[in-house]
C-alpha cells in the first residue's frame, strides 16, 4: 500500500538547546561579556518561557474575542501586557 502524499512528514524535534549558536551570538553582540558555564542555557530557558507566556496570553485574547484562530492583533496585545509585567 502506497503512502499518501497528503500525509505530513515527521519533523525532527530538537531535544537540546542551541548552545553554540547562542554563544556565537553573545560573542558577536557583546565581545567583552563573560557568562558562567550554564549562562547560555538560562538565556534559552528564559526565551522559551517568554514564548510560552506569549502563546497563553494570545490564546486568552482570542478566546475573549470569540475567535477560533489566534491573529496578529492577539499576539501584539499579549506582547504589550507581558512586556509591561516583566519590566518590574
Automatic annotation (TrEMBL):
- Could you tell me the Gene Ontology terms of the biological process aspect for this record? cell division; chromosome segregation; kinetochore assembly; mitotic cell cycle
Q: Which GO terms describe its cellular component?
A: inner kinetochore; nucleoplasm
Q: Which gene encodes it?
A: CENPW
Q: Where in the cell is it found?
A: Chromosome, Centromere, Kinetochore; Nucleus
* Record's subunit section: Heterodimer with CENPT; this dimer coassembles with CENPS-CENPX heterodimers at centromeres to form the tetrameric CENP-T-W-S-X complex, which is a subcomplex of the large constitutive centromere-associated network (CCAN, also known as the interphase centromere complex or ICEN). Interacts with NPM1.
| Superkingdom field | Eukaryota
Question: Where the protein is mainly located, per its record?
Answer: nucleus
| Natural source organism | Vulpes vulpes
Mind telling me what this protein is named?
Centromere protein W
The record's GO molecular-function terms, alphabetically, read: DNA binding; protein heterodimerization activity
UniProt similarity note = Belongs to the CENP-W/WIP1 family.
Role played: Component of the CENPA-NAC (nucleosome-associated) complex, a complex that plays a central role in assembly of kinetochore proteins, mitotic progression and chromosome segregation. The CENPA-NAC complex recruits the CENPA-CAD (nucleosome distal) complex and may be involved in incorporation of newly synthesized CENPA into centromeres. Part of a nucleosome-associated complex that binds specifically to histone H3-containing nucleosomes at the centromere, as opposed to nucleosomes containing CENPA.
* InterPro entries (alphabetical): CENP-W (IPR028847), CENP-W/WIP1 (IPR052484), Histone-fold (IPR009072)
What keywords is this UniProt entry annotated with? Cell cycle, Cell division, Centromere, Chromosome, DNA-binding, Kinetochore, Mitosis, Nucleus
Amino acid at each position: 500500500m502506497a503512502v499518501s502524499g497528503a500525509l505530513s512528514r515527521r519533523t525532527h524535534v530538537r531535544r537540546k538547546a542551541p548552545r553554540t549558536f547562542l554563544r556565537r551570538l553573545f560573542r558577536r553582540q557583546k565581545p567583552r561579556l563573560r557568562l558562567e558555564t550554564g549562562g547560555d542555557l538560562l538565556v534559552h530557558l528564559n526565551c522559551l518561557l517568554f514564548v510560552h507566556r506569549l502563546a497563553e496570553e494570545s490564546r486568552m485574547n482570542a478566546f475573549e474575542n470569540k475567535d477560533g484562530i489566534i491573529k496578529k492583533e492577539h499576539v501584539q496585545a499579549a506582547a504589550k501586557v507581558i512586556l509591561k509585567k516583566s519590566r518590574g
